[in-house]
């Protein structure tokens, strides 16, 4: 017999071995029941090969057949070395199994179910909906066809089935959209940049969890324990449920800043949220997106990305830029968005627009110049003053005097997020007069530590400081004026939110001046910001 015929026969025998174990693994039977048919099939295959190609082929047949069985068994039990074979074996093992393709399994319960040979795949036009499906102690999911669902990731699948985090306690960047983790103990788990949208964490223990840059749109945190969580740059909106969250304090930075602070809220380390404070605080700021631009902002790329963003979202305008914050070499933009905005998509669209344009610019420079020269030119294109971001975002004919609308209908408070940076001469005397008038509107109190006294001290410290440029003094004094107006606000529950914006702006300006920073911290505590 020719070598080609023998080789073909061996391939058929190998595939037969794979199919045999795959088929036997598709039903719940004991090893003793598997052994007999496997032995019989080996003997028959050896006999057939011996008859056809001579006795010497029998040993080869047995070896090939056993290899097929071994590789198939390893692949079906999750050995990553046999991933391709695993997919091939599943084709056999799911023949005749239960089909859930394109089914809506929202809120379904598969607790302790045996799911061997089940098919959870989705077609091109339809998706099997596994939102909030319960998989607790489900068996043999690794022997089902899982398609592109979150179950296809072994770490995610193990978490959903066992309810226990992996050894590293890290699911950074993984997709857990729609996962049901109600009541699960997840203390200190890392969900950084993970997709948790539509997932459910009702009554789960999430203390000290890292939610940095996590997507949490339509996620249910009802009754969860969230003390110590990090919420830097996380995306959430009005569909995110924060009812009855048990939380004493949170952090708004993953890593300490230059002062060693992770921006704890509340600021005072001896102070904690009262019942309902967490829900109230984050519900009030729920319709914002924080855009993080790394390694400085390229002027041309930012213009292109912002223009593209405003074309896709006509309701967005420069006045929606609530805050601009430097974080080392990075810059974070806080943008207010309409209530029904998909914040994850909003951030993605901006990032794509910015990165695409930046790559075009880099390619243009590097094609024309040496790499070092190109980098120098690119750095010169970066925005040096973050205030310029507002100037770029606005029409050239519009004054950069971003007057944010008051939240309250009665006794409105106007918070200035910026001021005229068009080159006009700064009149410090006029600004000081405005601040004094605003402070004088606050009723007198005997206590020397009251807000009127503190704001007066703050005004004097800023005005007399020799390190501050006149432009920075003007910016800082405007925020003091804002705080004086907030102090008159007749809704105490809204003062903290309003004051926090002005205080954050102040801290950016006087970051390296300890004497003024100390007064600002005291003012912050008085407002509870």
Molecular structure report:
By secondary structure, this protein is mainly alpha-helical. It has 15 helices and seven strands. The chain has helices spanning 3-25, 31-53, 56-76, 83-93, 154-162, 277-284, 299-312, 343-368, 371-380, 387-393, 428-440, 451-464, 470-487, 492-509, 514-527, and strands at 250-251, 264-265, 288-293, 321-327, 330-336, 403-404, 415-416. The strands form three sheets. Strands 3-5-4 form a three-stranded antiparallel sheet. β4 (321-327) and β5 form a beta hairpin. α8 (343-368) crosses α9 (371-380) and α11 packs antiparallel against α12 (451-464). The protein is globular and about 80 Å long. Mean pLDDT is 74; it is low at 26-36 and 395-425.
The value of Rg in angstroms is 32 Å
Strand content: 5-15%
Q: Round the mean pLDDT to the nearest integer and report it.
A: 74
Query: What is the helix tally?
Result: 15
Low-confidence stretches: 26-36, 395-425
- Neighbour order of strands in the largest sheet: 3-5-4
Rounded to the nearest angstrom, the distance between the terminal CA atoms is 87 Å
Helix content: 40-55%
Largest sheet: 3 strands, antiparallel
Tell me how many strands there are.
7
Given the helix and strand composition, which structural class is it? Answer: mainly alpha
How do the helices and strands line up, and which of them pair or pack?
Layout: H1 3-25, H2 31-53, H3 56-76, H4 83-93, H5 154-162, E1 250-251, E2 264-265, H6 277-284, E3 288-293, H7 299-312, E4 321-327, E5 330-336, H8 343-368, H9 371-380, H10 387-393, E6 403-404, E7 415-416, H11 428-440, H12 451-464, H13 470-487, H14 492-509, H15 514-527
Antiparallel strand pairs: 1-2, 3-5, 4-5, 6-7
Helix pairs in contact: 1-2, 1-3, 1-4, 2-3, 3-4, 7-8, 8-9, 11-12, 11-13, 12-13, 12-15, 13-14, 14-15
């Amino acid at each position: 017999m020719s070598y080609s015929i023998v080789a073909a026969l061996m391939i058929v025998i190998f595939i037969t071995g794979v199919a045999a174990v795959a088929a036997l693994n598709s039903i719940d039977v004991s090893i003793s029941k598997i052994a007999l048919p496997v032995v019989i099939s080996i003997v028959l295959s050896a006999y057939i090969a011996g008859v056809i190609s001579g006795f010497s082929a029998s040993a080869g047949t047995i070896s090939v057949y056993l290899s097929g069985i071994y590789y198939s068994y390893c692949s079906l039990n999750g050995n990553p070395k046999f991933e391709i074979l695993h997919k091939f074996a599943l084709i056999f093992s799911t023949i005749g199994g239960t089909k859930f393709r394109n089914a809506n399994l929202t809120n379904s319960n598969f607790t302790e179910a045996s799911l061997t040979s089940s098919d959870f795949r989705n077609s091109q036009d339809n998706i099997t909906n596994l939102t909030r499906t319960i998989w607790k102690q489900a068996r043999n999911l690794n022997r089902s066809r899982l398609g592109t669902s979150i179950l296809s990731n072994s770490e995610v699948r193990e978490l959903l089935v066992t309810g226990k985090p992996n050894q590293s306690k890290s699911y950074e960047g993984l997709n857990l959209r729609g996962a049901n983790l109600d009541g699960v103990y997840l203390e200190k788990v890392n969900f950084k940049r993970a997709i948790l949208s539509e997932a459910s964490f009702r009554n789960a223990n999430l203390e000290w969890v890292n939610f940095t840059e996590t997507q949490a749109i339509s996620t249910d945190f009802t009754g969860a324990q969230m003390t110590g969580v990090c919420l830097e740059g996380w995306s959430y909106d009005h569909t995110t449920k924060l009812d009855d969250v048990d939380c004493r304090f949170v952090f708004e930075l993953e890593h300490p800043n230059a002062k060693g602070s992770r921006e704890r809220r509340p600021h005072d380390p001896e102070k904690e949220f009262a019942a309902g404070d967490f829900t109230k605080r984050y519900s009030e700021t729920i319709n914002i997106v924080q855009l993080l631009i790394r390694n400085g902002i390229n002027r041309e790329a930012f213009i292109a990305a912002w223009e593209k963003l405003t074309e896709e979202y006509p309701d967005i305008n420069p006045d929606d830029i609530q805050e601009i914050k430097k974080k080392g070499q990075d810059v974070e933009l806080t943008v207010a968005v309409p209530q029904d905005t998909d914040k994850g998509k909003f951030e993605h669209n901006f990032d794509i627009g910015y990165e695409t344009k930046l790559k075009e610019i880099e390619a243009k420079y590097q094609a024309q110049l040496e790499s070092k020269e190109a980098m120098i030119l690119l750095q010169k294109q970066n925005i040096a003053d973050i205030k310029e971001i507002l100037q770029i975002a606005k029409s050239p004919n519009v004054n950069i005097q971003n007057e944010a609308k008051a939240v309250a209908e009665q006794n409105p408070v106007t918070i200035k997020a910026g001021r005229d940076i068009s080159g006009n001469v700064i009149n410090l005397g006029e600004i000081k007069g405005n601040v004094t008038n605003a402070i004088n509107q606050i009723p007198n109190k005997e206590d020397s530590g009251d807000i009127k006294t503190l704001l007066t001290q703050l005004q004097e410290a800023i005005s007399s400081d020799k390190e501050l440029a006149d432009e920075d003094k003007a910016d800082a004094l405007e925020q003091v004026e804002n705080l004086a107006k907030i102090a008159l606000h007749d809704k105490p529950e809204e003062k903290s939110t309003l004051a926090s914006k002005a205080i954050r702006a102040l801290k950016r300006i006087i970051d390296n001046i300890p004497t003024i920073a100390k007064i600002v911290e005291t003012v912050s505590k008085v407002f509870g910001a």
